[in-house]
Amino acid sequence: MTTTYTRSALASAILLALSGQTVMAEEQTEQPEQPAKEKVERIIVSGTPAGIGVRKIDAGYAVTNIDADQIVKLSPKSTADLFKAVPGVWVESSGGESGANVFVRGFPGGGDAPFLTLSLEGSPIYPAPTLSFLENSSLFRLDETIETMEALRGGPNPVVSNGQPGLTTNFRLKRGSEDTEGVFKYTTSDYDLQRLDAMVSGEISDDLYFMVGGYVKSSPGIRDAGFTSEKGSQFTINITKELENGTINLYTRQTDDHGAWYLPTPLNVDGVDASYTQLGTLNRQAIIYTGANNDEQQIDLGEGRGWKGHVSGGSIKLEFDNGWSFTDRFNITKGDANTYGLVPAGSATTVGAVADNGETATGAVTGTEYDAGTAVQQLGRWVVLKEISAFTNDLAFAKKLDNLSLAFGYYTASTSANDWWSLGNTAYHVLEAGGEMLDGIECNASVEGCGFNYDINSTGDARTNAFYTTAQYKFNDDFTLDAGVRFESHEVEYSVDEGLDGVIDKSVQYDESKTSWTTGINYSINDDMGVFARVNRGYKMPYFDDFRDNFGAYEGGEKLIKEVTQAEFGYKLLTDSTDFYATLFTNEVKGDTFVRRPGVPAEILTNEAYGIELDYNYNHESGFSVNLNSTLQETEITESPSNEGNESQRQPKWQVRVTPSYDFEVSDMYATLYGTISAVDDRFGDNENTVVLEGYEKVDIGLIVEPMEGIKVQLAVDNLTDEQGITEGDPRNADAPNGRYIMPRTTRLSISYEF
User: Would you call 748 helix, strand, or coil by DSSP?
Assistant: First the structure.
């Protein structure tokens, strides 16, 4: 596909989606006798002090809303996979249920999700956006208890809540009502997924409501590991009490879920494609050697990546006389987020090139003799044990005057992480699905392995205290000005034993403060249409891994704070049938750090970007609906020791995603036919811009039928054409011909009963 063709396709897709609105509008004008629908107000809480809430049409920033029905049609494979439906967000979710890479429009990043905050009921589930081997979406699983998700890029983000300058996604749980409602759902697939979901909600007593739900599941994985590599369960309780002047809400979400960690694989090698995984029965159990004394450890790599813990919290919202209101939201997160995986080290080679005798090697498990031409690769048996906990509290008082609204808030957070790592443990394995380790190769027999080893034991605690205030002034019914300021202090205490010899090699006592701000205007052209403009400046404060990776710079006086300046101008249209946002944006991120692998020096960069994002939803009474989200951007590394003028790594110049849907009736049976067409441009896999990751297109389709009242059957096919797209190269060795494929074609079937 040439560049000219793909840009034309992008333009055509946008014009087609937008022209659909005009065509349908003309159809509506030809049928004036149809009764007008009552307009439904959309209330959002993202970007507001302590989630006080504001009408979406009145917000001076762009927010994407995705409800439960849309989530069903998108059929995300993981929480991060859902974020693909958010404009301005590039997601690499090909690593499995956990361990995604999530990048925000033009913001730099070499992996994980450095500018993502995931919130539940408005509270951040873990204040550190990214630690090594842990990003926020790994701590959260989708199920039938989710009511909706909001996603805010930029906007007032740097001032409210945890001050995230990038992307904040907020999930809201279903709540009970006077009517008892529920759903039971069974799901299977062509990769032998077995999953049961359930959710029930209703009234306990007058003004006291409940919702309970969860799931259990197991499978050998989308990339078949030959054993049950994915298994898990989750249980959620949500209790709501309606008061005369407010609401009290309490929830807890208990999760125990893990799955195989899918890693980059060799490219252009026979037998290695999107369905391939290194992990299998012959290599999941292994022995590694750690620390100064080479202590022997037995491990099971089949545990993969996952989360075993709870996210619990609540809120109280009260309305008082004279325009005063009070809101407090809190959250407690505690558990283990461990990682086990087979990590590629360098390029594929052959037995003849590495065997002691230059001709053959023997399988360590089966005793099979492999000849000189057998493909092999070094795989590191990595283990990361991570115990985390966090507590956040966000309270705010608000006062409404005639034309002025004020809010005063206090946000506090405590965050901890205790880590034990053993990285490296590299040995040559047969390059086939679940390939075994080999005997007859000298370094395989060594306790030091064939490559580097990096072992640590660390402990860290961070405390954040922030005072913020926001103000909004309505000059008239059409024109509004808002502003906000945040003063934040951030303390970190951290120590790390590198080498597991009982000696503290690095210690940190850190205390810094910053002031963030935002200001914006919102002009209503009419009841359905408006424009907005905003500028802000925010900061990403350092956490534990930032100090370990950049310890020399820290000792030299660097504060390791990333400064983010953003500006945006947007147009919005919100009617009964249409939501449309077009947002021009520009941003600059100073002080970004990139580390290829633990233990090597960091690169410190400044990145700039500008572009436009489109977020379009149209619903027609005929049953036709369409969603379009698209991003077009230019990025540049403006300050760097060696890569100044290059594009930011792993950021596509454009991406587009169109999801049409059509509801119809067949023989008294309701049905919905839907699909998603997504396309992405080429990207560079490294800051040097020497590794090109080719763009790709992907098609998903699905059908939902309701053969009788309460019964739904859904068939969903992901990656219909079995596209072999590449999301990333090898972040640890950009020159190695390794890459991570998108997921292969899969088919899932669900049967549910709703009451």
Answer: strand
In the block, residue with structure tokens 């605690």: 461
Q: Please say whether the beta carbons of 170 and 63 come within 8 A.
A: no
Under the banding of pLDDT at 50, 70 and 90, the label for residue 40 is: low
Ranges assigned E (strand) in 264-304: 265-266, 285-290, 295-300
DSSP H/E element including 394? strand 375-400
- Spatial separation of the C-alpha atoms in residues 336 and 420, rounded to whole Å: 12
- For the record, the structure tokens of 381 come out as 């048996």
C-alpha 394/C-alpha 332 separation (Å) is 12
Render 235-265 in DSSP notation, one character per residue: EEEEEEEEETTEEEEEEEEEEEEEE-----E
The SS3 assignment for 633 reads strand
Angle at 155 between CA 249 and CA 63, to 5 degrees: 60
Instruction: Give the pair of three-digit tokens for residue 250.
Output: 């309490």
- Other CB atoms within 10 Å distance of the CB of residue 79: 24
User: Comparing C-alpha atoms, which of 424, 450, 428, 449 is closest to residue 439?
Assistant: 428
Q: Which residue's structure tokens are 């919202």?
A: 317
CA distance 15 to 20: 8
Q: Which of 573, 571, 575 shows the shortest CA–CA distance to 584?
A: 571
- Using alpha carbons only, give the angle 596, 81, 707 rounded to the nearest 5 degrees: 165
Predicted confidence (pLDDT) per residue in 64-113, tens digit: 999 999 999 999 999 999 999 999 999 999 888 888 999 998 888 878 89
Is the Cα dihedral 707, 709, 711, 715 positive or negative? positive
The pLDDT, as a whole number, for residue 675 is: 96
Query: Which residues are bridge partners to 266 per DSSP?
Result: 738
How does strand 438-439 pair with strand 426-430? unpaired
Give φ, ψ of 577 to 5 degrees: -110, -10
Instruction: Provide the 8-state DSSP code for 437.
Output: B
Phi, psi of 631 (to 5 degrees): -135, 130
CA 83 to chain centre: 6
pLDDT tens track for 203-237: 999 999 999 999 999 999 999 999 999 999 999 99
Q: Mean per-residue pLDDT for 493-516?
A: 97
Give 153-219 as a 3 state SS string: ECCCCCCCCCCCCCEEEEEEECCCCCCCEEEEEEEEECCCCEEEEEEEEEEEECCEEEEEEEEEEEE
Measured at the alpha carbon of residue 286, what is the angle toward residues 285 and 290, in degrees to the nearest 5? 140
CA–CA separation, 466 and 164 (whole Å): 12
The H or E element that residue 727 is part of is strand 726-728
Question: Can you give the C-alpha Rg of the chain in angstroms?
Answer: 26
Location of structure tokens 């990038």: 166
pTM above 0.85, yes or no: yes
Residues 101, 233, 712, CA angle at the centre, nearest 5°?
90
